[in-house]
Amino acid sequence: MDNALYVGLSRQMTLRRQLDIVANNIANADTTGFKAEQPLVQTEPKSPARTSDGPNPIKFVIDSGLARDFSQGALQATNATFDLAIDGPGFFQIQTPGGDRFTRDGHFRLDDAGRIVTQSGQPVLSAGGAEVIIDPTRGPVEIARDGTISQGVEQVGRLGVVIFDDLSTLEKIGDNQFRSTSNAQPQPAAGSLIRQGMLEGSNVNPILQVTEMIEVTRAYESLARMMENTQELSRRSVERLGRVE
After folding, report:
1. What's the pTM value of the predicted model, to 2 decimals?
2. Rounded to the nearest 10 degrees, how much is the dihedral formed by the CA atoms of 19, 24, 27, 29?
């Protein structure tokens, strides 16, 4: 009976982790460029807690990682000059003190030096890996679908969109950004387009996430009842054994 309690507890731990992830997905349903996440679980064979007639080994449930859905979210028009959305796979490349970072959040702005930066002030890099600097006095800024930046008839730069062959090497670090955990270099995202005056919405489906939250909660409660019943059965068995002796 101890085995049932330990197996149930291992599953409750993964359900609690799953509930945290679902809640985070729901909280970011309106976050620009957010990608829905899902926990990965697997069984881990272990020896029984005590000698019994039950299965050997006992299979516990463990948290084995996190999966992320990189499918594109819906594009939403804002008509803001430096709101940019990627239509297709890929990421904008951002320069930070900790190294290059990657994001689908194209809610950019100009800083005091005329650089295109994120809302937190980190420079967005060009296709050549340099900062993109705009002179506002030269007129309105037009950004073509291939990333080319123009002011009037003059081309002043070209934004880059990059992609990784293996998206599992990307680690979320906060501020809607990712970092690469491998030595693989990103490549230009051929075929992806940049849409000026638009932002990519989250790809979270709130209805599915709320449904999953209900299912996780019910599964957790069901396990709790099973563990309580197992513990009560163990207590009664001990009491009856004591009376027999």
Report:
1. 0.80
2. -110
